[in-house]
Fold this protein.
Amino acid sequence: MAFKIAIDTGGTFSDVVVTDDAGGFSLSKAPTTPARIFDGISQALTSAAEERELTLGELLADAGMVIYATTRSTNAILTGATARTALITTAGFRDTLVFREGGKLRPFDFRQPYPEPYIARSLTYEVAERVSSEGEVVVPLAADDVRRVLAELREGEIEAVAVSLLWSIENPSHEQLVGELLEAELPGVPYTLSHRLNPIVREYRRTSSAAIDASLKPLMQRHLSDMGTDLRAAGFGGELLVVTSFGGVLRVGDVASRPLYSVNSGPAMAPVAGKVAAAPSRDVVVCDTGGTSFDVSVVRDGEVKFTRETWLGEPFTGHITGLSSVDVKNVGAGGGSVAWIDPGGMLRVGPRSAGAEPGPVCYGRGGTEPTVTDAAVALGYIDPAYFWAGKLALDADAAAAAIRAVVAEPLGLSVAAAAWAILAVANEHMVTAVRDITINQGIDPRDSVLVAGGGAGGLTMSKIAEELGCRSVLVPRTAAALSATGGLFGDIVSEFTVSRRVQTGDFDYDAVNAGLATLERQMDEFFDRMHIAPEARVKDYVVEARYPYQVWELDVPLEKGRFDGPEDVEAMVQAFHATHEAVFAVKEAGQRVECLYWKGRASVHLPKPAVPRISPNGATTPKPRGTRATWWGGDDPEQAAIFAAESLAAHQRVAGPAVVELPTTTVVVYPGWELEVTERGDFLLSRPSA
Amino acid sequence: MDTTQTQTRTSDPILLAVIANRLDSICREMTNTLLRSARSAVINMARDFSCSIVTADNKLLATAEGLPVHVIGSEFLAEAMTELHDDISEGDAFLHNDPYLGNTHSADHAILVPVFHEGVHVFTAIAKAHQADAGNALPTTYVPGAKDVYDEGAITFPCVRVQQGYEPNADIIRMCNSRIRVPEQWYGDFLAALGAARIAERRLKELCAQYGRDTVDDLVEQWFDYSERRMTQAIRALPSGTLEGFSTHDPYPGLPDGIPLKVKVNIDAEEGRIELDLRENPDNYDGGLNESRACATANAMIGMFNSIDPDMPHNSGSFRRVTVLLREGCIAGIPRFPHSCSMATTNVADRLVSTTQAAFAELGDGWGLAEGAMGMGPYMGVVSGKDHRFGDQAYVNQLFIGSGGGPGGPVADGWPTYFIPVCASLVYKDSVEVDEQRYPIHVYEQALIPDSEGAGRHRGGLGCRSVYGPKRNPMAAAWSVEAHHHPPKGVRGGLPGGATDAWMIDAEGREQPVDLVGTVELQEGERIVSISAGGGGYGDPLDRAPERVLHDVREGWVSPERARDVYGVVLRPDGRGFALDAEATAAARERARAAAR
């Protein structure tokens, strides 16, 4: 038996999904052990092995591939646990990371402190040099000036160095010289050159990419190397792949040399899982609802959507990764979001969260403010005795009392009506997040399947679908571990960028074709490094283009990696007009198109695990485990049928109101909705009346 | 308004929250569309534009993250539309930039789209954007010396129909194309604003279809009532009284003594009302600094909103508790035709915001703000010329290089990305690389200036030094330095921020003075140096947490000497950096306080 294993280590829990070539599938969880990550993982792996009556060593020995996703790099950034990193930059422009790009979220709010730069100004060093926007050296870089700075870095016990000089993407010679001197003067200190990592115009974004990447190198190189060592020591002899923010995987060595790729990588895999789960649908909105955050991503026409604006923290005041990566919109809304009444008498939910500690009131760990989870308990959707397979007994009375005191009494509502209201307001935040990421990009959510992931995804996603006008919601059986599941279906993906600015009115075929040839060469080098056979190499090309004078580009896929004549240019221009109209409601037919960046996406399709199938058992009407009092907006309860997920067979249908319980999540079937079990054992919710 | 009655009307708090959230989300969608698809840098890089939704009876309903100076008062634009046109119908769009009919200034082109549901006008969607050029006599959208509207020279559109039945009025578009510099850029921006308003139209129609017009109407009224309640409560939390704020705008061409400005604030906490009185200000003058009615109203209100609970809906509901008193023929009031309001969104506007928020600081610790950086020095200059790299193609646009220091407040330090009060950190800073790619300019430096902050318990943001010049061809640059003679003031014992300044470095490297207000033509090798102001401080610098001062010194924001002399914080060398000498600091602060007594 050959196994494929996906591991997803989050801040509190690690998920392990094991598949085999016979379609077998198991999901196990264990607490994350930050001191030595493998300790927690081996617990979860051991229970997966035991299910198959194997030892951990036997399981790993038969595993051809381990796919590892980690929040280690993201967490290190958020908690400031990265390396002591210096930035070397062009004289006169020391404050690039301080300014960011300006902007703020809340007008009239002068209470927010200004955020610190990613690299302290005291660790930012200037070298006298300057390249112009046309790539000419205006001020030559003196090696001695660099050596002076490097001597200071040595004395300052710097652990990593980011180098970002103005216009290094037009002429990298100065950054290259700094790189050479770093090798000579500070051997062993990891560094990142901005033009190599992320060759884009906009100095803040490129500098931020380089700064984050360099700061992660010592930590992630050690972490990934330990992980490989531990896995091998436990008997693993296969390939260790690491999940990236491109929504794919890379060999561990490639991620160790560019750890920025691992930042925000977990959420990037959710749409990959969602896409597989929702097949054959090609337009999918994937929502991952956890305890404190709600992540949305989009698959359109079978392609996962990308963005160049991924911020760690809030937009404008966080730190931008600068990479083109899977677009994941994140809002602080989840099971732990706190409900409160504002001074104007309006019900608000969030943005504050009760988090994991003390958590919702019903956890009985000292929480006093009612949360979304408390509302779900009060409405009878979550069985207090069966939460997380009965591992945590919930205090339903405490939840109801908190809702009564904080929400129901001030608004003059019953507890049930107040709890319903809490869910409705929480849902609206999620609706807004979905609208932001879909409609803003010209995607109509009504044409999409909503995939609900995360522990809390099955609770309210149908109501969110109603607000968005979506007809169906899919809750995968593995909803609670969507990212890990995505890893299993991920391909090897890497992206390369060249910058060539041309206009279609005066299209420079030679420059563009040379740029595309560079991309092809870079992709082939990448494939060569991985010993990928020529027939397995997938090369896709995309241009980031805009109308003249615009500054924000749109992605337009190219049909091939070369422009042979005007018809190829015309095809690209037409594709651009269509994209512009879809996204911005207008197009300017006849206008020239300005092309900025050319991207090559190299991918290798990896073998996918067999999709598990469950068979029909003949009966069309499933048998409930029992009934429970539930509320659906009114003051009076209704008895709803409760089903155990494992008792449901393919094609069986359950009409709402009903609740389907899994060990790791709960699927609520609202009145007017119907649930159908798919052949894969997933749950498809739809509204027969709509 | 009877509050008991309004409370009973809030019958469906859930739906109310849902609709309020939805309206903001529609505004954000408009904003995103305009930002991403616009052509001129002032819009697509700096986001000098705003989107809003107004009700059919011309009440401001939703503004999301619009620039306050644009959105407060956008209901006046809609008023002009309904008053001038009795045949408004579905598929119409109007172009409006007339400061005498409710607009801010001529350079802000607003597109208004009346939104219909089942044949009834229900909302008006407005996208207003600062144009790179408005057809002025000079190649700048800010003309301080404009004697009147004719001298200013902007082509005026008093709320004219540019689309009917969703088809463009080609006459109007031809007029713009023939009188506005770089018409292709203008047309792209026009399409972007129209696209934004049309997207709002689509969404608002969906909203009405989903919930029904009666429900939506009712919820909109409830939302206004709710907003009014929030405002009433916020005002009741303030001490009652009358405040007077004074400020002096720098001397300008035609204004040798500058402009003495006064804002009177009457707070009636019991009644929950605030009155902002701007009537005791000088008369209109023959120059471009006169306020339009929209700007005078908005800016006093912005200063007030900056000073109270920020979690407040900013719409016609909360505005019900506020009265702004204006005088006709007043420089900070309602202009008398044909005075020019070319600079209405910045100079006097910035002073009004600053003066109002600084006046609120007199209420006590916890209220108000210091003054922030003001004036559009060369770092916010409008540059124009011909680009040798692209066949001498013409260009004109406003730069946003560097920034200006924000005001210290009761809770936080000022931000270094503030620019000026009417933008208040909301506009984006240019990327130096993108500027150099788009225009034939070379940026030599962009660096925060140590010790330029207004010291305080919460200090102001630092000023910035920006240096740029043309690559080859001559380049015209227009600017208007303010806060050079009267830098941003501190409040409650906070000190003023560093002053604005500008000079030129000639091709031989010598410093040369330049006019602080005007247009120059820079030749190859010449460069302009722009110093932006630091923000004023809030509270006594001796009360600033010593650890914060230490951090400022370590980061190079504040020199060790200034830490000692101004903040009374004594540091000693520690390895390669500094450490706090707590005892010496306590003693130094005690001495300084004693000396002050």
Notes: Chain A touches chain B through 69 residues (CB under 8 Å).
